[in-house]
Amino acid sequence: MKKIEEYVRSIPDFPEPGIIFRDITSVLNDAEGLQLAIDSMDDLLKGVDFDVVVGTESRGFIFGVPIAYKEKKPFVPVRKKGKLPLETISQDYDLEYGSATIEMHKDSIKPGQKVVIVDDLIATGGTVEACIKMIERLGGEVVKVIFLMELKGLKGRERLKGYDVASVISYEGN
Description:
Elements lengths: L8 E4 L7 E4 L1 H4 L2 H13 L8 E5 L2 H13 L3 E6 L7 E8 L2 E8 L8 E9 L3 H12 L3 E11 L4 H4 L5 E7 L3
Parallel strand pairs: 3-4, 3-7, 7-8, 8-9
Antiparallel strand pairs: 1-2, 4-6, 5-6
């Protein structure tokens, strides 16, 4: 069986010269690769006591929903501003070239719930940091944050210091 790293396509000079883009569509397009990715991420949760899975739009949905299903836990989507129909809370955060806002339903996390956050990639950690702030404002406790891939050169793990962060694959650069 192939290792998960063998399913990830590396595309040089995208989106700009000097950057190596780590493409997960090659993982998603292969049934064994997709199963291996989800199972490997789910393995990061062994021994973790949690009540709910939170995933960030959109690739956090791809991996978060099957993990929630396997673990028999509810799934909470975190979306871009204006995409959720009920009363929401929001959090602004900085991007490389600007800012963005994410939201979640106000009633999606109950006080005292133990939360796992799932996303495909940790780069700078800004999106997940914003997600953590919303969960904590609602009274939830983030007990684990898991990613398929980590770009160590962008130091996102440092931004999430104090939280239990794990990734299946780590790349040294950006």
